[in-house]
């Protein structure tokens, strides 16, 4: 199979790897949509690896002995390789599992754990069946395009009575905007990069520059002097959390999605704020709600996905990510649009 490999600082190549093999409940998925997430940071930092990526949607081509999925089934691939037996996995919070499975050893495969590739191995319980009325491109947003902010909106109980401020309009923030808009909330977005600010505006957010001293005044005036009800921080900028807190009313809810060790907050106790640390979503309890959110967001997802490229152009795709000149990028490992290929495979 073809797969992305980071071979040197700043270098990602497409190489030939041996195809993976199923074993027990570990199945093989043919990847038809490979969204890009933070892999460009690994390339920039020189984190050499032959298994790139953690998001995918595709078709089960070898179900092994699985009783959960069948060959030919369209699925979304959840990240990681949770044991399926600990307290976190059994409750659907597999992202916190401390007992990750070694699926390569289990199946005798040399490769198959990265998703910027043509095939991937995955325990069957970490595959989410895709409803017939949802395209694979849209379904793939159930990974990181929607996943982290979906959990945030679920925990914040975002609704049509809320004013929501979303900090950062990268691919994750844009997903958060789409979901806030379709929940009926009034949405403000904070962004300094012109390309992404334009995307956020097209998706229904009122976009403000967090560096503008009048930003807080704008939010206060729009909310009768109170401040926003909810906030979601996705940018990862050091001062973003503290800045976002100044835009929220007392007793507001703040969801932190950004993966960073450098986030600082303002005075927490006098704010009475409830802080929600949001990583991924619970596919065992919330799949129906996720698919409903994706259905409602179809046209917004089409704006969120700014580039569709073949696998071989992964380096150019990461260049776009480096420059911030993109929303969500999806790659096609087999060089054709995912649903067209899925139809041919099914026939």
Helices and strands in order, then pairings?
Layout: E1 2-8, E2 11-16, E3 26-35, H1 39-45, E4 56-62, E5 74-77, H2 87-90, H3 103-107, E6 119-123, E7 127-129, H4 136-139, H5 147-156, E8 163-167, H6 171-182, E9 186-190, H7 194-202, E10 206-208, H8 215-222, E11 228-233, H9 240-245, E12 248-256, E13 274-277, H10 283-296, H11 298-304, E14 305-310, H12 314-323, E15 328-332, H13 338-346
Parallel strand pairs: 8-9, 8-11, 9-10, 11-12, 12-13, 14-15
Antiparallel strand pairs: 1-2, 3-4, 3-6, 3-15, 4-5, 5-7
Shape: globular
Rounded mean pLDDT is 95
Spatial gap, N to C terminus: 22 Å
Number of helices: 13
Main sheet? Answer: 7 strands, mixed
Number of beta-strand segments: 15
Order of helices and strands, N to C? EEEHEEHHEEHHEHEHEHEHEEHHEHEH
How much helicity do the residues have? 25-40%
Poorly predicted tracts of residues: none
CATH fold-type name of the largest domain: Quinone Oxidoreductase, Chain A, domain 1
The helix-and-strand class reads alpha/beta
Instruction: Using the 3D structure, state the CATH architecture of the largest domain.
Output: Alpha-Beta Complex
Our estimate of the beta-strand percent is: 15-25%
CA gyration radius, whole angstroms: 20 Å
CATH homologous superfamily title of the largest domain: Medium-chain alcohol dehydrogenases, catalytic domain
How many domains in all? 2
Task: Tell me the name of the CATH class of the largest domain.
Answer: Alpha Beta
Keywords: Oxidoreductase
Protein name: Alcohol dehydrogenase
InterPro entries: ADH-like_C, ADH-like_N, GroES-like_sf, NAD(P)-bd_dom_sf, Zn_alcohol_dh
Cofactor: Zn(2+)
